[in-house]
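SAMPLE LOG
Freezer: B-3
Tube label: C17
Construct: single chain, 297 aa
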Amino acid sequence: MATMDSAIYDKQLAWKLHGQRKLASKSQELRVQHDNECTFSPKTNSRSLRAEEFAAEEEETHGNRFTMATASETEAALLHPTESQESSIQMHLARQERAREHVVEAQQKYERLTAIRGLAGVQLAKDYNKVTTVEPFTLSTTNWKPRQSTIESPTRQIPAVEQVKPTKPGKSKAKAQTSRSSKSPRCTHAACDVHTSKEEEAWESERATLVSIIDAQRRELALREQAQQEAVRVAERFATATQAFEERLVAVEQSAAKELEEVKRLLASQAAATDLILTSLGITRRPGSNSGNSRYD
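STRUCTURE (predicted):
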């Protein structure tokens, strides 16, 4: 069993070493390739190249008739780029300027964020040596007045001479009674009465305010109820007048219908009498004539 484990371990170790050697060789190849490879492509002036080619051709064809361009002319040609080169140079400079602006803006933004995070993360250390005092809540300044301590502790310093001075038994009893009476809580009744009177005054003013508000609301409700009752009365009056007008209109229509029937009856009786008279006289009506538009022969 131990032999099998050692064999497995040896295989794993050999595989690990093989991977390390492979990785080292690959990195060495990449490093050598990066060092040997050159992607630089120099930009040349086409005008100067054409001038050099033309000069070489002239020298080959015509011999020594034309001389080659001097170094100053070549340098002048190189120092004066073409329009395309100038435009490319300007575009490159503009891109560089924009890149610088973007870098500056990003740096400023990062600094602002860092400052904000620093301010948000700063926690003021608590001063444990500082003594804090407990203060009561402030009361309302409209009705309630600030409370004041009503119990005053008697802090009377008794001189040493008085303590040593001998006194009579009766006087000592009277002083003890007066001191006890001064220390008893009954002595604070006057201050308590003053405080309670102030509280009662404040409560009375508050109560008067609430009562006035309630009375105003009651008056408003009474006025609203009165207006509602007046509106109901006006509506009832209007409904009564409308109903009387409708009844009068119906009565007029009925009387008009009756009068019209009476007129029709009278006209019919008059037409019958007229026909009887005409028949007795021997006068006949035209065949197509009506009773209203009758023409006699």
